[in-house]
Specification:
single chain, 3-stranded antiparallel β-sheet, 7 strands, about 190 residues, about 15% strand, two-stranded antiparallel ribbon
């Protein structure tokens, strides 16, 4: 009696290959010509290309790719991590009250209220103490509203400092007027939304 032997995982490879063939057939039908597909692929970032392939090959996985309105990066909504988005300060600083002793001083960012201690920076000649971001947290595919304050909490919205103290300003309230909005960055025209 003769039995055929197959390597472990061969059926999975065959099923995966069939799914890939179907995905490529869909791409061909969608774009019509190799040149149109080539142009479309060149304009895609890595995450969008990954989503295109995975969503076609394995429809049950469905990556949900969105555009962050604050850092203007694409992100997978199913994998939106707590430190994925970073929004740089967009405003000037103003001095706070001078120190009582030591001659140091602090500057407060007008966009978010974070305070920078310049004594440490100059003594150490190191910018590691600098706070380059108003916000570091999850991506947002829409602008934050006051409703989010109650639902999400101040920490998730980036409204507390490293010690857990509430900041003087909610960075996102000022963002529409002074930050790099999608309108200013022309995200829709550039096709990154």
């Amino acid at each position: 009696m003769s039995t055929s032997r197959t390597r472990p995982g061969k059926q999975t490879v065959t099923q995966s290959g069939a799914a890939m063939k179907s995905a490529f057939t869909d791409l061909r039908q969608t774009h019509g010509t190799a040149e149109k597909l080539k142009r479309a692929l060149k304009g895609m970032d890595k995450l969008t290309l990954e989503a295109l392939i995975l969503n076609n090959a394995f429809p049950e996985t469905r990556l949900d790719i969105r555009h962050c309105v604050y850092c203007h990066q694409k992100f997978n909504a199913g994998d939106n991590q707590a430190s994925a988005c970073s929004v740089e300060h967009w405003s000037e600083t103003e001095p706070t009250e001078p120190y009582e002793t030591g001659g140091g001083y602090e500057q407060m960012y007008l966009c978010c209220g974070k305070v920078m201690d310049y004594t440490d920076v100059y003594e150490n000649d190191d910018d590691d103490d600098a706070e380059p971001f108003c916000y570091e947290g999850v991506h947002w595919d829409r602008e934050i509203t006051t409703d989010d304050e109650g639902e999400r909490g101040l920490e998730e919205l980036g409204m507390v400092d490293d010690e857990g103290n509430k900041l003087r300003r909610a960075w996102w309230r000022e963002f529409r007027e002074g930050g790099y909005t999608c309108e200013r960055m022309q995200c829709a025209r550039r096709g990154i939304m």
